[in-house]
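Example record

One chain of 600 residues, shown exactly as stored in the release files.
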Amino acid sequence: MSDKEVSKPCHRCKSRSASLPTETTKIHYEEFWLFRHCSSVHQRDRHAQKAGQLFSGLLAMNVVFLGSAFISSMIFNNVAITLADVWILLSILKVLCLFWIIYYLLGTSRQPHAVLYRDSHAGAIWIRGSVLLFGICSILLNVFQIGYSTILVHCKSKVEILFPSIGIIFICTQAYFLWHHSKDCIQVQHNFTRCGLMVTIATNLLLWLLAVTNDTLHVEIESQLREVERRFAGNETTLCTCPNTTICKVFQKGYILLYPFNTEYCLVCSSVLYVMWKNVGRRISHDHIPNTKPKFKLQGVVFGPLLGTSAAIIGACVFMMYQIQVTSLVPSHQVIVIYYSYYIVLLPLMSVGAVIGTIIHALEKKELDTLKNPTRSLDVVLLMAAALGQIGMSYFSIVALVATDPRDPLNSLALSYSVLLIFQNITQNVFVIDGLHRRHVAAAAEARHAGHSGQHTVAVELPGEEETTLNSNQEHSQTPPAKEEHTKEEQNHEAYSQRRVSMLELGQEIRKASLSYIHTYSHLSWKRRALREISFFLVLCNIILWVMPTFGTHPIFENGMERSFYGYSTWFAIVNFGLPLGVFYRMHSVGGLLEVYVTA
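Predicted structure tokens for this chain:
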């Protein structure tokens, strides 16, 4: 709630001030008791809001510190604090969050005057779609974990089945809650709602932290491989082995494939819940509610989709080559060279596009949107914070490469890759943040003008074909009934004429759509066309750069250079912290770039 909204006088003050004498032009309202009373009420509301936010924030901080202490203790001393202990703590937090979400759905949100305002900027369709998609993948991940633990139930703890079972219920309930209520500006039970939201945020952050630091399944797979080798050597051991190797491999591969989506789900849910927390008690005036929302339409772009699709196809080929080579018995360094070369070509193109887009934003001279918007503020913070993952890893890599042997061909490629990645992150952040803060000019009249003129143009261009089609249809409709005995040639001729008419209609519709698209493209100004081309190109590039590390392309860890410099444990911790943030940055950049494209 902005200061202007907070400082509005209440109805009693308005009615009282209307009856005050207006003999003099200067009236000292602060002398009136009623004015002082109304002002103190609003100040108390503001203080209560700040106090509620502070208390709920401190509650979440304590929950995060407690969970982080458990997870850290498990890492450094897995005998005193085991993974099962961490799962029990997180299960308790999940159950508490479930109780609060159910209470919000059935109690708080159904109270009279509970949801008087809804934030139009919060809960965009791509964010809710991400919650739904990543939630489904996380559910499948838990299903694979339950199946794998059920097969090995004879040597595993029951907690390994209970924890993912509670996780499935938690994911389903939270996804439903965010899909339907992410735009709510709740006006009742402020403090209780804030505390519930903050505890849910803390739980998601702890789940993300556990997913980043926990590598138990990979270690277990390696131990099983060593167990197989010992069996072939004739040495019997008592490790936990799978009775059905095929089913276990299916569960293991599915778990490893879906594992990154769980981290993305936790981060996206945390961001949506934070916006809801900021919107608790917020009152939105009608001036801040847009009459028309910009919608995504594939118009005004030609070169951006072509270049972006080409980059995505080449990236997919590099990704498949990398996966085939890395999983082979004798991995080759040539595929790492190809991977770095692909990035070295693509990253400068993305940086140049972002710089040109920033210059065009400066030339447009649009007004800045200064209205209070928690969603936009959070988008900016998340873009800057998530970019620290890739930037931090790049700086660590630069120091290691320069200190060892920068003249080596592979080292020089890795060094160029790290430098270009830093520059690309910075330029893209500047372009996206600058675009998010530009005031959107409604282009509804322009679009209508383009549609009407496009229709007139098509009508002028295609008069003859329409008449031909109508005449042919009239001829078919006016033909006398056929005789009982038709020759084969007449039937073939009739079928051919019908196919010819349908093909003419199809070609006519395609030509109309093409002419309308070309007219719309030419009707836009060159600045808007350039911004849309750049935004769409960067969207496709960020999608392929999200896919590659998400599904296991990690040459920064597998090339061995930084690992030998920092040591396995240190570099593993750096990569485990930076890679999930880098993946989240690419996904979040896609959402920001789509908004820049729509509002261009």
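Notes: The two ends are 28 Å apart (CA to CA).
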